[in-house]
Amino acid sequence: MTGAPPGPLLEVQGVSVRFGALVALSQVSVEIRRGSILAIIGPNGAGKTTLLNVISGFYHPYAGRIVFDGKDRTNLSPPDVAVLGIARTFQNVALFKGMSVLDNLMTGRLLKTRGSFLLEALYWGPARRQEIEHRAFVERIIDFLEIQAIRKTPAGRLPYGLQKRVELGRALAAEPQLLLLDEPMAGMNVEEKEDMCRFILDVNAEFGTTIALIEHDMGVVMDISDRVVVLDYGRKIADGPPAEVRKDSAVLDAYLGVSHD
């Protein structure tokens, strides 16, 4: 990205997480480069969602550090992490089901709201200008994601694939530097997956957003990611370009359960 500071946007440095006797992550180190798409893969229970939860502040590691934009952010809460410019979607859709698509997207602008409660309540001056600016940005996202026809529909009435698209839009409404996507294509048919792949690539290209995603569809991973990190039983077993990772014997063993010479 032109004019971006040098170095990775986010560094996970030797992070370990445990829940009682269960070690969910063990000394995991990952770099997410600015403007890139990183895929995080691995068998079920490998620690993928735990890694996103550590990055987004839902979990705090008992060892290691999280460095975002050159500063230690290890122990920040999820709201503080969001303020820094990290947004995420969830494996299970977490929309406000009774609210319209437009209103769901507007909730993504809350972190961008400035000014006093009184001004907002009276809808005067700066508060009104902010509302107009936020609405204009959300309308841009609605056009970008091609969801104009459902903008007034309650989110809970939408098919699952469209709900996932709306959740992506709400995350984009926060204008994140880093977007974390937890299985954005889970439960989708082939056509819906193709659409979501296109949107993810366009978000990266047009908004300049750095993306880290968890995905089980290896075809998708190979098509859209710049780098792939592979976890297995909470440990990182591979990290590199997709073409290299797909031939790695440790990765084949983890997925297929057989050794390869």
Structural description of this entry:
This protein is α/β, with parallel strands linked by helices and 261 residues long. It has 2 domains: 1-85 and 177-261, P-loop containing nucleotide triphosphate hydrolases (Rossmann fold, 3-Layer(aba) Sandwich); 95-175, no CATH class. Helices cover 38% and strands 23% of the residues. The chain has 10 helices and 10 strands. Strands 6-7-8-3-9-10 form a 6-stranded mixed sheet, with helices on both faces. Strand 1 and strand 2 form a beta hairpin. Helix 3 packs parallel to helix 6.
Structural class by sheet pairing and helices: alpha/beta
Radius of gyration: 19 Å
Total strands: the figure is 10
Q: What fraction strand?
A: 15-25%
Distance between the termini: 40 Å
Low-confidence stretches: 115-119
- Strand order across the biggest sheet? 6-7-8-3-9-10
Q: Helix share of residues?
A: 25-40%
Overall spatial form: globular
Count of all domains: 2
**The CATH homology group name of the largest domain:** P-loop containing nucleotide triphosphate hydrolases
CATH class of the largest domain: Alpha Beta
- Helix count? 10
CATH architecture identity of the largest domain: 3-Layer(aba) Sandwich
Mean pLDDT: 88
- Main beta-sheet annotation: 6 strands, mixed
